[in-house]
Specification:
This is DUF4232 domain-containing protein. Pfam families: DUF4232. Keywords: Signal. By secondary structure, the chain is mainly beta. The chain is built from no helices and 22 strands. The chain folds into two domains: 136 residues, Immunoglobulin-like (Sandwich); 134 residues, Immunoglobulin-like (Sandwich). The strands form six sheets. Strands 9, 10, 11, 14, 16, 21 and 22 form a seven-stranded mixed β-sheet that branches. The chain has a four-stranded mixed β-sheet with strand order 1-6-5-8, with no helix packed on it. The protein is globular.
C-alpha cells in the first residue's frame, strides 16, 4: 500500500505573506499594561531576551483578548515584529509565535512569512492568531521559531512559473510510531510537457545553512520501513501542463547512543540542471543517521 504523499503544502496558522524589499505593513504598537511596573508592556515576553531571535524582534502586541488596548474580547491577539537580514543575500523569513496564558502555559501558535528581505535591510511584519481565546488575558507572546531561506529558493505552489517550468513544495507529512514521511510535490507549471525521472537530489542543511554531515541519504527506504512505494524502481514519465508528481522523505526519530540530529532545511533539486528549492521539513532524525528518498512518481490523485 502506498503511503499518501499528496497532502497540501504546509502552512502556519494565520500566515500573512508580505513582500519585503524594505519595510512593510507596520507592526502593531504595544500598549502599557494597566497598573504595570515601569518598562512592562502588555503582551510582551516577560524575559526581555525572548523578544529577539534569529534576526526577529517583537515590536508590539495588541488585542483585547490579551487585555491589551481597547476593543472587544473577540479581537484576536496580534503581534508586530521587525526582521533584519544580516546575511549577504535576499532571504524569505517564516516566523512562528506562541501565545502563552498568564501562567506561562502555551495556548496556540500563529505566524507570518516575510519575503525577499534584501541584505542589510529591515522589514516590518505582523501576525495574528486567528481565533478568540478566552483565557488569554494577562498572557504574552513569544518567538517560537525563525526559519529563513534564500529568496530565490523559496518554494511556491502557484504564481509565476520559474524558468525550470515546475513548482516544488513539501507537505506537513505524516507521523506514526516514530516513522516520519514528508511528501515532496512537483507540478508542471509550464505551457509544454515536462519529462521526469529518477530521484530528487537532496542536500541536508543546519540552521546556518551549512551541510549536515554524518547522515546517509539513501535512494529508496533504506530498510527504514516496508509497505510503501519508496522501493519501487524509478521510471521516466511525462507531465502535461498542470499535472503533478510526488516523491518523499522517510526517516525514524529513534534515539539510542550518540547525538540527536535535527535538520531544519532540505535543499531539493527536482531534476538535474533545474533550480534548487529549499524546504523546511524539520527532520528529527534522532541517532538513526539515515534518510530515505522516494522516486518521483506521477500523481494521479487530481490534487
Amino acid at each position: 500500500m502506498r503511503t499518501s504523499l499528496a497532502a497540501p503544502a504546509a502552512a502556519l496558522t494565520g500566515v500573512l505573506l508580505l513582500t519585503a524589499c524594505g519595510s512593510e505593513a507596520p507592526g502593531q504598537p504595544a500598549d502599557a499594561r494597566p497598573g504595570s511596573t515601569s518598562g512592562a508592556r502588555c503582551g510582551f515576553p516577560h524575559d526581555p531576551a525572548a523578544r529577539t531571535s534569529g534576526g526577529v524582534e517583537i515590536t508590539g502586541v495588541s488585542g483585547a483578548a490579551l487585555g491589551c488596548g481597547t476593543g472587544t474580547p473577540s479581537d484576536p491577539p496580534k503581534v508586530g515584529f521587525l526582521v533584519s537580514n544580516h546575511e549577504g543575500r535576499p532571504l524569505t523569513y517564516t516566523v512562528e509565535f506562541t501565545l502563552y496564558d498568564a501562567s506561562g502555559g502555551p495556548l496556540t501558535n500563529g505566524g507570518a512569512t516575510v519575503v525577499n528581505v534584501a541584505p542589510g535591510r529591515t522589514a516590518r511584519g505582523s501576525a495574528d492568531f486567528g481565533e478568540v481565546l478566552r483565557n488569554a488575558e494577562g498572557g504574552h507572546v513569544g518567538i517560537a521559531k525563525v526559519r529563513s531561506v534564500p529568496a530565490d529558493e523559496t518554494p511556491v505552489a502557484s504564481g509565476t512559473c520559474p524558468p525550470s517550468g515546475v513548482h516544488v513544495t513539501a507537505d506537513q507529512g505524516d507521523a506514526a510510531m516514530g516513522l516520519r514521511v514528508v511528501g515532496l510535490h512537483l507540478r508542471n507549471c509550464s505551457a509544454g510537457p515536462y519529462r521526469v525521472s529518477g530521484f530528487p537530489q537532496i542536500q541536508l542543511q543546519d540552521l546556518a545553512h551549512e551541510p549536515v554531515t554524518g547522515v546517509r541519504v539513501l535512494h529508496g527506504s533504506g530498510g527504514i520501513s516496508t509497505g510503501t512505494d519508496f522501493d519501487v524502481p524509478p521510471h521516466p514519465f511525462t507531465l502535461q501542463p498542470g499535472q503533478s508528481a510526488t516523491s518523499g522523505l522517510m526517516w525514524r526519530n529513534t534515539v539510542t547512543d550518540g547525538t540527536n540530529v535535527d535538520v531544519p532545511y532540505v535543499r531539493v533539486v527536482a531534476q538535474p540542471g533545474t533550480h534548487a528549492v529549499t524546504v523546511t521539513p524539520e527532520l528529527d532524525l534522532g541517532t538513526t543517521g539515515k534518510l530515505g528518498v522516494g522516486p518521483w512518481a506521477k500523481d494521479d490523485s487530481g490534487r
